[in-house]
Amino acid sequence: xxxxxxxxxxxxxxxxxxxxFPFNWELLxxxxxxxxxxHLKKWWFCLGGTALYLFIVQVVTGIALTFYYVPSPxxxxxxxxxxxxxxxxGWFIRSLHKWSANFMIVxxxxxxxxxxxxxxxxxxxxxxxCIGFLLLGTTLTFGFTxxxxxxxxxxxxxxxxxxxxxxxxxxxxxxxxxxxRGGTEVGENTLTRFFIxxxxxxxxxxxxxxxxxxxxxxLQGVTELQFEGEVVPKEEQYFRFWPxxxxxxxxxxxxxxxLLTIVALIFPAGLGAPADPTQTPAHIKPxxxxxxxxxxxxxxxxxxSVVLTLGLGSIAFFWPFIEEWLSRRFRMPDxxxxxxxxxxxxxxxxxxxxxxxxx
Amino acid sequence: xxxxxxxxxxxxxSHTTRREWLASVLMGVGLVASYGVLAVEGLMxxxxxxxxxxxxxxxxxxxxxxxxxxxxxxxxxxxxxxxxKRSESGFQAFSSVCPxxxxxVHWEVDKQQFFCPCHRGVxxxxxxxISGPPAAAGQRxxxxxLKVDELSGVIYIEVKDAKRKQI
Lengths: 359, 167
Description:
The complex is a heterodimer of chains A (359) and B (167).
Chain A: H1 4-7, H2 13-20, H3 25-32, E1 35-37, H4 47-66, H5 76-85, H6 90-117, H7 126-149, H8 153-167, H9 173-181, H10 188-220, E2 238-240, H11 241-266, H12 291-299, H13 302-330, H14 335-357
Antiparallel strand pairs in A: 1-2
Helix pairs in contact in A: 4-6, 4-11, 5-6, 6-7, 6-11, 7-8, 7-10, 7-13, 8-9, 12-13, 12-14
Chain B: H1 7-10, H2 18-46, E1 55-62, E2 71-75, E3 81-87, E4 90-95, E5 106-108, E6 113-116, E7 121-123, E8 129-131, H3 133-136, E9 146-149, E10 154-160
Antiparallel strand pairs in B: 1-10, 2-3, 3-4, 5-6, 6-7, 7-8, 9-10
């Protein structure tokens, strides 16, 4: 007996391919034709896509780097040095990875500001704000664990300070610190843990969160905005995701590669002194995106700064729900969330700049 | 940056002018070229440099210690035996690895030939296979460069340097 499908003698190659991969291509066409509001032609509404593009750059360059990186205390530094100095284009791949990470954090922060100040986090998009906030945390953890892998003096002592900070979290802190370090001190276990977090756990978490984030955007549609005094002809109010918006994203991607290449050429990733567990350098500083926390640590006690960071972080995480509750209860004027947002961002900025100018 | 992706340019309904066509072709070529360069660099990053193996001279005894028709064995830095042979015409050095399947050959003084016990491969005094599977395949023992210092009366063989980390 011949299966029914095979009895059809001559089918076109196209038909045969379709049968081998029975996917509803019309569905994809439909999904691609998603109407995008006109304001997404402006680049500052594409910052989420910018972060996504940079994340892809991170994945590609990161996989390349793991071909040579050795996650053991006596070889980590030497392998990074080999990547930077000996391996063909190693300095370039590493510099791209480093700068793309920095760009990505900037993009995520700007994306968050855009979402906040356009009120795009409000009902029904509260959940996506929370997922986005988790993505911010994931990005920062990526930055921290990645920086620690270099195993130079600053990254070693940065890891020491940060794991001690984690250990100061109320209740779970001591366990968290012990778990992260794989012992009481930063050492062999810490490096392998950070490595597997950086290349295995965090990418998985980021991938899941990103998928949810994008799925929700697709299900709910992009927030539609009407700017004051702006008149848009009816036929220009929407354009198609594919190929119009995809082209925008592609162009932003090209611009980003251009910028990344320039900064990688002018400021290639360097290498400090190798980690020395017996000696803390005179001046230690984290990466710039942790300056605010570092300054907070200098201004207050360890306990206060940790509790403050956690508290403010939780408020930011739950903000869409908190705001809803507040406005129902007190009939809050619109100016208050905006003011709070400005204050929050300004204090982040002030603490960061303050720290960057102090020795 | 206001209208970075002109919707009208991509509209199927509108007629594509030559200028637009040229622009998109140039853009495509530019994109492929620039990402292509990056891909080549990435590929070069992933493929390690092929380093020319560094060699060093290894002491292989004094000339007067060799009888004509006699062989002495030395080990290179990877632990492979090198057979140094003196004949009427001078010195020759061979790797003891049989080209058939990697067994070790030894010198048979009485027959003046190298013999591989695994599959009965026989090589003449110049390392050319004369019997057994290596002869059928037309193989020979690989020769190792050798230096004779007449002044001090010392033989050196040129071997691969101790293994370095490949980068």
